[in-house]
Amino acid sequence: MSDLEKLFDSHTHNFDTKNRGIVQVTLSSRENLPFYFSFGVHPEESTVDLAEIEDLCNKFIQKPGFLAIGEIGLDNRYASLDKQEEIFVFQLKLAAKFNKPVILHCVNSWDRCRFLHEKNAPETMLIYHGFNKASITESVLDYPNSIISIGESVLTNQQLQSSLAHIPDTRLLIETDTGKGELIDTYRLVAEIKKLSLQALTELLNQNAKRIFKYE
Fold this sequence. Notes:
8 helices; 8 strands; TIM Barrel; eight-stranded parallel sheet; alpha/beta
């Protein structure tokens, strides 16, 4: 295994990634499944067939690489908030049914996302992906089933860099999402801020991933 393959990417849209990580599968990219993947309907997609989502999850659950439901959530930049909630709740219930963690897309709606998760899938882990809003770090960490996944925005977001010190090691993941940067650059900065060696951080995040996503 190469050094890059040792790095765990908790959420990426890059099907050609050289890192070990969870690739986002959508309704339009459901063929040729990656080794590890998540599946979910983004809040931007307000017109979907809920039965089709469930049918695909029933199909994917047979694959050992199906590790999470997501990204799903709420985003107040898009219309149809009622429809967003309906789709989000439906997928939360699927996460509970299949015992899968949730990769959360959340924009200006943390309190509502938390409420709906706590009501519909409280036993599942909630991974706040692409986390970049340092001002709500404490609020997110107050929810015991939450995990914070940091992307390349930490490279330039000084407030987020400062908040990293308050994120417990066991509740941290790192991702690339749709970014163009290299995962290793985010790992190096987080290791520096956390005062860990790159190897120690890599081992730590691999342990977190195995605990959260239950993969071998």
